[in-house]
User: What shape does this take?
Amino acid sequence: MSRAAPVAPRRRTPPTEKFVRAFAEVRDELIGTLHSMLGSHDDAQDVAQEAFLKCWRARRKLRGVRNLKAWIFRIALNAARDLQRNAWRRKSRPLEPTLAPPPQAEVSPADVLAHGEALERLRGALLDLRAEEREVFLLRQNGDLTYEQIAVLRRRPVGTVKTQMRTALIKLRKVLQERAPV
Assistant: This one.
């Protein structure tokens, strides 16, 4: 009587390994789709990376996912739509230093220099804000959005948005006063 060789148990692929492999397989197609949707290769790369992170954070839900590729694409396309709806991105105007200060009768070289320094102080003060405060400030100032529109966009209560704006203004005033030339 011959014995059959023992059958080794099949190794189950861990969900995280399965996810990483699936994402690697769809990455190029995903970036191509995102590039077509967003019109920018850099934005497509950024959204793909953001989608990977969102998927990674939700990886515990993988057992309930039937079509991993569709799940990844859905998350990535939602992230791309969020980027397209982002009014701050669409309407932001960079704080470029200009050589011309606000209109005046006579502009001296000292005025031009002081204006440039003020813009640099403002840039530094903006970078010192917390990300939420900076975003609310820029959406309100550059995006010309109302507090209600910002609240909808950021999915936060209007009161929270107003508090973040007030905090940003207080911090900006303080930093600008401290850094103001004597």
User: Anything to note?
Assistant: The helical segments are 15-38, 41-57, 68-85, 87-91, 109-128, 131-141, 147-154, 158-179. Residues 34 and 44 are 5 Å apart (CA to CA).
